[in-house]
Amino acid sequence: MSTHATYRRIRTMDDIFLPVALAPSSATRSSAKRYGQVFSVIVVMILMAFSFGVTNGVGGMTLSYFRDVDFSKSNVFQAGFLGFRVQAEGDGYTFDGPEDEDGGFHTSFVIPESGSLPMQYEISVEKTGGSDVFCNALHASATSTSFMYDGPLLALATTTFSNGPFDFNVTISDTDALSDGDTCLIDVVYTGWSSDTPVPFGYTDTKRTPLTFTYSNPSTPSAPVELASSSAPEVTDAPPADPTSSSTPDTVVEPSMLSPHPSTVASTTPPADPPAPDATPADPSGAPPAGQ
To answer: In terms of domains, do 93 and 211 share one?
Structure first.
C-alpha cells in the first residue's frame, strides 16, 4: 500500500517543515483504485492505437529497413528488325482457248533480310483490274507442301511459317462467258509478322507480286471487225483530150524514147526542165535550125 507524505512544523518554533507520513484513508484508497483502472484502460487504448498505426503505416512513426543500391550501366534498348523480299518466276499466263487445260504455273520464294526476326507469312490475292467474269472463272491449286489451297484464285488466303517455295497452278473453271482478249490483273500479297506475335499484331512487312492472265480464243472475237475491200478500183475510159487546152498532159512521149518494138510502153516520167535560152537543141536530121 502506498503512503502519502506531507510537510509540517513539528513544533511551533521550528523554522523548517519536516515530512510527515500520512496513512491513506478508505476514501483515498477507493479513489486511487478507480483512477488506476481508468489509467489502465487508457494505456491499453494507447497501445492498441499504436499497434494499428504501425500495421497500417500511419501513426507518425519513421520506419527504416536495411537496403543496398547497385547500378546497371550502358544499357541499350533496340527495336527488332523485320523484313523480307520475294523472288517470283513469271508475270502471268495466256490461256489459248477452252482446250488449254494445263493452265498457268506460278512459283515464288520469300527471302528474309539479314538480321530480321523469325517470321510467319500470310499469302493472299487481290484483284487490281480486268474482267470480273474472267477473274471469277480462275481456279488456283497449290502444288507444293509449303501451303495447302484448292479453290477460286481471288479467295486464296493462307498462313504459313515456311519460306517457300509457294507453287500454285491456275486454270479456268468455265469458259462459256469468256471473250477473246479478256484479262485479269491480280496482286499476290505477301505479309510477314514476327513468328511469336499473334496475327495481325506487332511489326509487319508487306510485298506484292503482280500477275496478268489473258484469255485468247480467236474463234470468239470480242467485237466484229469490218474488213476494208481489197478489190482493184474500176477503170473507166478517159474522155478525149481537148486540143485547145493549155494544160500539160500527164503522159509525154519524146521522139528519142520511141522504140521500134511494139511492146515498148511510153514513159510516164514528168518532162525535164526546158533548156537554157543560149542552148541549141540538137536536130536528129542534122539540118541547121531555122533562122540561121
So the answer is: yes
